[in-house]
Amino acid sequence: MEGIKTDSVVLDDMLTVSAAPHIRSNESVRRIMLDVVIALVPAMIGSIYFFGLNALKLLLVTTISAVFFEAAMQKLFKKEIRIRDLSAVVTGILLAFNLPAGAPWWVAVFGAGFAIIVVKELFGGIGSNFMNPALAARAALVASWPGIMSNYVNPDGMSAATPLAILKDGAGSLPSIQRMLIGDIGGVIGETSVILLLIGAAYLIIRKVIDWKIPAIYIATTAIFLLLFGVDSNAIIYHILGGGLILGAFFMATDYSSSPVTPKGRIIFAIGCGFLTALFRLYGSMPEGVSYSILLMNVASPVIEKWTKPRVFGEVKRNENR
């Protein structure tokens, strides 16, 4: 991550020199990850309040498993063990946020292993993963155990359709907007409370950990394309507050490693996420579309960065007559 000082750096080359200007920052990976953990605390407390001790168990299992797998892989590859940078903790928490409250512990362990081993460490570790590890793990779990991953329960413990499922199937009663803001609805444990997620998002924006443009453009684009695709305007608010749009927009689409770093690239990335989310929600087989939208745009990020690379000033023009 450009401009961010790491706790310890291993360089392939002993000396790297690049053209000015250089960005100087006192931030470290550990400080940034700690900010993300702090931002996730309100939603963590809310998930335990709404879904009980099983939510706490899933949070502990995914976090401990993620840290264990990261340490084991770095030991296996004879690399410096860097679990103190807290990046594995963030992955573990976000993975738990993407699990239904009734998910068994072994699903959580498998997801943590897939996120850390396959998506993160096999591609070089922090900063080198081309996809968001937690989202990739969720996609793998949905493909492997769709029944478990779609068995949502309400905070009262009763199985229930999510607001997005009700919108897609056209059957059932939608919850009130107040309940959706608070989080008193069915869904995965970390996505239901919009208010608590926005409190954490505000903290990250104030701390300048994330750029507000990606989540703002992502959410706005989703709403615009839903309207263009013919969705009733009264249903737009349910699409925004329901499902994983708020969680994904603020905490996953802003991942440093897998989203573009160029200003124009971030805008294109966010628009692409919004378009795909609207498309998947209306024409896909499942009511949710955030995970796959972000993952697909993660894959497109290198190309987007190449297209939107800022012009370099001060470069000596090549002598065409030479």
Descriptive overview:
This protein is an all-alpha fold. 58% of the residues lie in helices and 0% in strands. The chain contains 14 helices and no strands. The protein has helices spanning 29-51, 53-76, 87-97, 105-120, 133-144, 146-149, 163-169, 177-182, 194-206, 213-228, 233-241, 245-251, 263-283, 290-307. Residues 1-6 have low confidence and may be disordered.
Summarize the model shown.
It is built from 14 helices and no strands. The chain is mainly alpha-helical and 322 residues long. 45% of the residues are buried.
Structure summary, number of beta strands: 0
**So how many helices?**
14
Biggest sheet character? none
For the terminal residues, how far apart are their CA atoms? 38 Å
Question: What fraction strand?
Answer: under 5%
Mean pLDDT: 88
Amount of helix: 55-70%
Low-pLDDT residue intervals, each spanning 5 or more residues: 1-6
Using only C-alpha atoms, the radius of gyration works out to 20 Å
Helix-strand category: mainly alpha
Order of helices and strands: HHHHHHHHHHHHHH
Shape: globular
